């Protein structure tokens, strides 16, 4: 029997080109399809309204949650600011477009590129720009809280690649870092021009792009976050059914025992143990 062996030599196989996607997962593909309507654990038709009052021990002397100096209310970083991507808590580590309409990575995740949504805007109505994102990340990585330092040290460069797109080139292949960057908060660059970001306190009311804005507050005593009725991302699949309360309020007390007494007296509506 004559056996013929066909040896393919010198024939290169082109790598699969990366394409912009609606989401990104730590491993494998995102669990939700590009046309998903809402996250699987929310009620897309949830009614809006009401308020919740949390009790906190201690106080606050800053409205900047991204720096080491001072103490800022927890809710400011969570409800006033948002990132390029949003997380689906129904899968191990999967993110979907928020400020960014798409995300793209290199074959080995040696770079990640985000494209902003054209409709993304801050609560004052100004657009979220590539310049805002680049400034935010560079500022967080060099002047922000030390928790950002390790991730930023792994970024080799960041550049604007289009009117609404930017690319982070990583120092080495990293499956997790593109997701971490996708969760970093985006700030309004113009608000901090002429001022020291790392020294800001309660004198500067931050403007974010997330569903809530800072309302009335008394330094160290209380602060209200009010839902923005004109929030730009209200109908995004990643946001639909979320952030339904009109007001999220934090009241501060001397210690945890007083917080519990305030809860029993009906002064606050939620008490967190532990």
Please provide a written account of the structure.
This protein is an alpha+beta fold and 274 residues long. It has a single domain (47-264), classed as D-Maltodextrin-Binding Protein, domain 2 (3-Layer(aba) Sandwich). It is 15% helix and 23% strand. It contains 5 helices and 11 strands, in the order E-E-H-E-E-E-E-H-H-E-E-H-E-E-E-H. The strands form 3 sheets. The protein has a 4-stranded mixed beta sheet. A hairpin with a 5-residue loop joins strand 5 and strand 6 (111-116). The longest helix is centred in the middle third of the chain and has 14 residues, at 130-143. The termini are far apart. Residues 1-17 have low confidence and may be disordered. Residues 95-268 form the Solute-binding protein family domain. One of its GO terms (cellular component) is outer membrane-bounded periplasmic space.
| Percent range of helical residues | 10-25%
CATH-defined architecture: 3-Layer(aba) Sandwich
Strand content: 15-25%
CATH class: Alpha Beta
Note the overall shape.
Answer: globular
Order of helices and strands: EEHEEEEHHEEHEEEH
**Roughly how many Å is the radius of gyration?**
22 Å
Task: Please count the helical segments.
Answer: 5
């Amino acid at each position: 029997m004559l056996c013929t062996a066909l040896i393919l030599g010198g024939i290169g196989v082109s790598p699969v080109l990366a394409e912009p996607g609606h989401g990104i997962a730590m491993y494998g593909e995102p669990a939700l399809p590009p046309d998903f309507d809402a996250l699987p654990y929310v009620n897309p038709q949830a009614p809006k309204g009401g308020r919740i009052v949390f009790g906190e021990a201690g106080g606050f002397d800053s409205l900047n949650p991204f720096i080491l100096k001072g103490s800022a209310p927890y809710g400011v970083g969570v409800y006033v600011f948002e990132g390029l991507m949003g997380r689906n808590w129904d899968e191990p580590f999967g993110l979907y477009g928020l400020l960014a309409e798409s995300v793209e990575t290199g074959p080995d995740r040696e770079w990640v590129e985000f494209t902003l949504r054209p409709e993304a805007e801050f609560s004052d109505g100004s657009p979220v720009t590539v310049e805002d994102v680049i400034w935010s990340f560079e500022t967080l990585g060099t002047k922000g809280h030390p928790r950002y330092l390790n991730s930023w040290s792994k970024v080799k460069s960041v550049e604007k690649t289009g009117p609404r797109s930017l690319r982070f080139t990583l120092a080495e292949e990293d499956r997790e870092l593109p997701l971490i960057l996708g969760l970093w908060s985006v700030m309004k660059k113009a608000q901090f021009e002429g001022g020291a970001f790392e020294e800001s306190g309660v004198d500067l009311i931050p403007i974010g792009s997330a569903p809530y804005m800072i309302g009335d507050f008394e330094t160290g005593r209380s602060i209200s976050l009010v839902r923005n009725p004109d929030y730009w991302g209200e109908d995004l699949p990643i946001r639909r059914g979320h952030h339904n309360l009109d007001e999220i309020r934090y009241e501060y007390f001397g210690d945890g025992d007083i917080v519990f007494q305030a809860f029993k007296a009906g002064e606050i509506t939620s008490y967190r143990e532990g």
